[in-house]
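SAMPLE LOG
Freezer: B-3
Tube label: C17
Construct: single chain, 306 aa
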Amino acid sequence: MDSRNFQELLEFQWSFNNHVCLGLDSEYSRIPESLRRGSIQNTLIAFNQGIVDATKDAVCAYKLNFAFYLKYGSEGITALRETVANIRAVAREIPTILDGKHGDTVDSNVAYALAAFESFNMDAVTVNPYAGMEPLQPFFDHPDKGVIILCHTSNKGANFLQDKTVSLSLQERKDFFPRPIDSQNWEHDVPDCLPVYQYVGYHVSRHWNKNGNCVLSAGATYPADIAKIRRIDDDMPLLILGNGTQGGDIEKTVTFGKSSRGLRMIVNFSRSIIFASQGSDCFEAARNKTIDLGDTINQYRLNNLH
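STRUCTURE (predicted):
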C-alpha cells in the first residue's frame, strides 16, 4: 500500500477482523517510572512506540487526541509527530486519526486541514459540524483522508443540545422518510422534526459525503442513539467513543453500531488499554487487553447477522 487512502486502510484492517481503535492518550504522569526516558518528549515517544509494537497486529486504527500532546507544548507536539512517523515505519497499513474536533471558519479550517494532513501526516481528523458544511470543505477537499464528524458525543451532558429538535423542510422529510411517500396520510404520519444529532447524521449521509470519506462519531454511552444513527446509513463507518473507562457497554455498542453485514465500526478504547497495567509489563498487558476486546467485539459482531 504505497498510496494512502483512509477508507482503503480501514477496509484492509477489517479484513483481518480488527475493529479496535487504540487511543494513544498518553499522559506522562501515568507512565511507569521504569519506562520514563528523562524528558516528557522522549518518554511519550518511547511509551507510544512500545504500545504500537505490542498492538500493531490487533487494531484497525490509532487515534491521537491533540489535547493530550498540546498540553506539553513543543515537547508534546514533537512527540505526536514522532509517534505518527513511528507508526508509519512499523505499522504502515494502520491509519492514524488526529482527534482535534476542529470546526471554525473556512480560512481557519484550511490551516487545520494542512496541519492535520501535511504537518502531522495524519490519515483522518475529527471535526465539529456546528458551523455547517461549507466551512468543513477544506477537509472534504482531501478525498483520500477521513473526515470524522461528531454526531453524538459520549459525555453526560450530550443531550443539552444534541437531543434538541430541528424542524425539517418538506424536501428533507421526503429525503429522510422515503418509504411512506405514497401514503395518503404521509404528511400526517411522518415526523416534521429530528433531534440535532440525527439531523447531522442525515445531512452527512445524504449531502456531505460526496467523496465517500466521511465517518460519523457516536458515543457508546448512548447505545439507543447509536442504533438510530446506524439506521440513517448502513454503510458509513462509525467511530464509537466512550467504551472502557467511560463505561460504554461493548455488547450494545457492537449490536447497535454494526452494519447489516457486521462491519463498518471503529471501536475506540484508550486508557483502559494503554494503562491496563502500571508495572513494567504494561506493553504485554496492553496487548492482552487489545486482543481480549477484539475477540469480544467479534463475538457480538457476528451474532444475528442479516
